[in-house]
Amino acid sequence: MMTLNTDHGFILVIHPEQSVREWLTDNLSACGHSVAVSNSVDEGLALFRQDRHQLIIADLELSQQQLLAVLATESPETPIITVSGDVPMEVVLEALKNGAVDHFFKNRDVLVLAHTVQRALERGRLLRENREYQQQLEAANAELERSLETLQEDQEAGRRIQYRLLPQTPFKASESCVVSHRIFPSLYLSGDFVDYFKIGDHKLGFYLADVSGHGAASAFVTVFLKAITNRIQKHYERKTSVNFVAPSKILAAINEELIGAKMGKHLAMFCGVIDLENNRLTYSVAAHYPPPLLVTDVGTTSLAGRGLPLGLFKEVHHEEHVVDLAQNFTLIATSDGVLEVLPKGSAADKEKLLQSMAVDVQTVDDLVTLLHLSDDDELPDDVALLVIKRAS
Fold first, then answer.
1. This prediction's pTM
2. pLDDT per residue over 21-42, tens digit each?
3. Domain boundaries in the chain?
């Protein structure tokens, strides 16, 4: 007998005629395949369920009676080749329609048998690999879903913690001065942060920070900022009279600690102190944009100031600006994420639009409404809003 170059398979032959079983067994064995035989469907199915053969070659008539239907349910990836003598082609087509992968006529030679078996084994191998891959993919997806659920839980916990670090809003700094803020993160956690606090009896310290990037890494820096703020508050909390607080020194201290911590992050910041008794604003700017807006009865002014970002350079100096305040005023500061929610246009156009909105702002909620912001929005960048309003 001839030996053919085929992949060796584990084949089950089911056929009622002994001569056909022997012919198939001899020729398949000569090709290197392992062969098991049965003369009935029931016995053949029992053998298959026990040994899980890679290929079944079965009598066409037996296959049509029960075998194809059972295997389509129990093992659809197992290929079946039907065998018959000369029969009408529509009978063969019916078997192929019901799940057989190929058909072999008994009067064909061994080479045809070898190629038919080879194609069926390859098909079965691909189907098994596809099933295994699908199972692996489903397992990986399940693991990914569990990981995403854990990550979401962690992010939610981080978000709750971060929001607890934020100051009360609205906050009554004096009988006539109220501070309010809102933060809209682009992800679960925000790289924007706002804080404000009383310094002595008549001063209000505040800042709006925009950490580079967004998400968890940037949010960690905001926790760091809050720790610095707490130290400042503790320094002054026992003092009823505070003559002078320098925003530039606050920026310098934050810059020094950021560089020392090696967080790989930098930030922009607008930091100020309002002397509510002497009607004076002292502030410093570290690469903050867009410029804060001061609204009075006279009009709206963009506060000057530039300065380098914090966390990049060891030696930095930020100018201090002093502005005399009217009895009634509104101070508005936003992070640069607000520019992403404004209509398209140049930076100058967007600044002018913010200025036009500012005259209608009494609280941060007014600003949220004018900007059409919502907690459900998907934003390209974090948005932080700070409004300080004094009205006699």
1. 0.63
2. 999 999 999 888 999 999 998 9
3. 10-134, 166-390
